[in-house]
Amino acid sequence: MWLVVVDTMQIQPYIFGSNRLRENVGASYLVDAATRVWAFEAVKKAVGTASETTKIGHEDELPDNKRIEQGLAAEVLYAGGGNFVVLFGGNDDQARERAKEFQRALSTRALLEAPGLQLVIAQQAMQWDNDSLSARLNQAFRALAIEKRNRAWSAPLLGLGVTASCSSTGLPATGLVPGIGGEPSYLASDEIQAKVDVALQHGNELSAADERLQKALPLEEGKEQYLYPRDLDEMGATAGEYSYIAVVHADGNSMGQRILHIGNVYESPGKNREFVQKLREFSRNVEIAAKAALNAVLAKLVQRIKEGGGKSIVHKPNQKMLIQIELAKSKDGKYYVPFRPIVFGGDDVTFVCDGRLGLSLAIEYLREFERQTALAHLGENNGGLTACAGVAIVKSHYPFARAYALAEELCSSAKRYRRDKKIDGSCLDWHFALSGLGGSIEEVRDREYLASAGSLTLRPVTLAANPKEAPRAWPVIEKGIKAFQGEDWAGHHNKVKALRDTLREGPAAVEHFVGALKVQLPTVLPEMSDWPTKGWQGGSCGYFDAIELADWFIPLKGEADATTATASEP
C-alpha cells in the first residue's frame, strides 16, 4: 500500500494577494476544489476500472463498510482542513503506480486550472497489518513540512519589454477580464483569469464560487431579497463617512494536539481501522460544527437587517446617537448583506464584513463555534472546542493582503495570550488600522498604546469572564461600550474625547478631570474600585478600549433582544 498526503503552500498570498474581493473568493474556491473535488477525481483516474470496487465521490460520505484492507484499489481516509489523505492498495508496484498517476493527474489539473497554486504531496509505503497508520501519517506530514521548507522557489518570467503587466499580480498579462461596478476591463495574468472565471457570474447563473457558498451557507431569502457581496464596495457604508471593512480570521485551538491524541490512542497496527474511523468522524464533525456556527451568525445578521426595515442595520443606543449601515443595492433591486465568508469548511475561517460589525460577528462566531462543537461532544470530557479570532478594521481600499496578515497576526496574539495564561476558553484581539502599520502589533502597541501608568489597552481579551486577569475580558469592555453609548454620555462627544486624551496622562490627571467636570466614570468591574475615579488600577486602563469602540460598535442583537438576554441571564 501507498499512503499519499496532499497539502498546499503559500496559501495566504494566493488567496489574499488582491484588493478585488472576487479574486480572493475565486482563489479560495480553487484551493478548496484542488484538495477536494479534483483530488477525488484524480483518485478515480488513478485506479481506473478498479474504482468500481469502492465508492469515491466528493459529496459522498466516506463508507466505513468498504475498506482498503479488503482489497479495494483506493480508499480516501479523509478530506478536510486543506488536506487530502488517500491510501492506494494492491502490491507494491501497483500501489506505487497508482500513487504516481494520482499525483500526475492532480498536479496537471492544478497547473492548467489554478495557475499559481502550489501543491505539496508526500508519499509513504506501508503495510496495513504491520505498520501503524497514525505513525505513517505523522511521518508523511513531517515530510510535507520538510518539503515546504526546502522547496526550490520558481522564478517566473516577469515579462519582456513588449509585455503588459497584470494589474493584480504584476506578472505578464495574458488577457482581459471584465471590470467591477463600471470599472473597465483590466489586464490579467493566467492566475487572475482562473480566479475570476470561477467567481464571475454569467447571466443569471451563480458563479461556481457563489454556488459553493450558497450550498454551505444559504441565504434564506437570497432569491427574493438578499445577496452576498462580490466586491468590497458592496459591503455597505454611511453617506458622508469613510467606508471601513473588517477582516476576521478565526482558528480552532489545539486542533493539531487533538488529532495527535487520536493517533496516540489508536497507534498500534491492530487499531488502524479504528484510527481511520475516529479521524474521519472528528474531521467531519468539526467541519459540520464550523459551518453551523457560520450559519447561525448569518441568521442573526439577517434578523438584524430585518429589524432595520430590511434595508439597513440600525443601532440607536440613546436618543442622541445613531449608528447605521445602509445596505448596498444591486441593479435588480436586491440588497447585499455586509458579510462575505472567504475561507470556510473547517475550523480555520476568514470572512470580511462592514467594519462596524467586525467585532460583533467575530464574537458571535466564537460563541457559536463553542456551542456547536459542544453539541457534537468534540472537546475534552465531551465538551466543546474553543477558537481564537483576530479582527483587523481597515479602510475599504486598504491593501487586502496586509489587512489579512494583520488579522492573522491578531489571531496569533490571542492564541499566544491564551497559551501563556493557560486559559481554557476562546480569546480575541483587534486593531484599528486607520493608517499604515509600521512594525508588528506588539511594536505598534508599545508605540501608540503605552503610557507612563501602563498599557492603555486590555487586549487581547477572553471571550467570557477571565479567571486569570479579570479586566482582560470582553464582557468588561462591552459594559464600557454600553456606558459610553448610553444616555449619561450621549451628546458629550468632546467630553469623551477629552477623557480619552486624559487617560494617556495617568491616574492623577483622570482624578482631576473627574473632579473638575463632576462626572462619574462607569463601574464596569466592581473589583477595580479605582477605575471610576482614576481610570487606572494596577497598570490597567479601564476605559480606553471602550471609548475607541463607542462610535463604531454595532451589537449583533438589537436593543430589545439585548435587554431580554440580559434580564434572562442568571
Overview of this protein structure:
β2 (74-80) and β3 (83-88) form a beta hairpin. The relative contact order is 0.09. The N and C termini lie far apart (57 Å). The chain is built from 18 helices and 20 strands. The longest helix has 36 residues, at 272-307. Residues 51-59 and 559-570 have low confidence and may be disordered. α3 packs across α4 and α9 crosses α10 (358-375). The chain has four domains: 2-150, 2-Layer Sandwich (Alpha-Beta Plaits); 175-213, no CATH class; 217-448, Alpha-Beta Plaits; 451-570, no CATH class. It is 42% helix and 17% strand. The strands form seven sheets. It has a six-stranded mixed sheet. By secondary structure, it is α+β, with helices and mostly antiparallel strands.
CATH architectural arrangement of the largest domain: 2-Layer Sandwich
Strand order across the largest sheet: 12-13-8-14-15-18
- Determine the mean pLDDT: 86
Q: How much helix is in the residues?
A: 40-55%
Identify the CATH homologous superfamily of the largest domain.
Reverse transcriptase/Diguanylate cyclase domain
* Domain module count: 4
From the 3D structure, determine the CATH topology of the largest domain: Alpha-Beta Plaits
From the N-terminal CA to the C-terminal CA, the straight-line distance is 57 Å
Largest sheet: 6 strands, mixed
Outline: globular
Query: What are the low-pLDDT stretches, counting only 5+ consecutive residues below 50?
Result: 51-59, 559-570
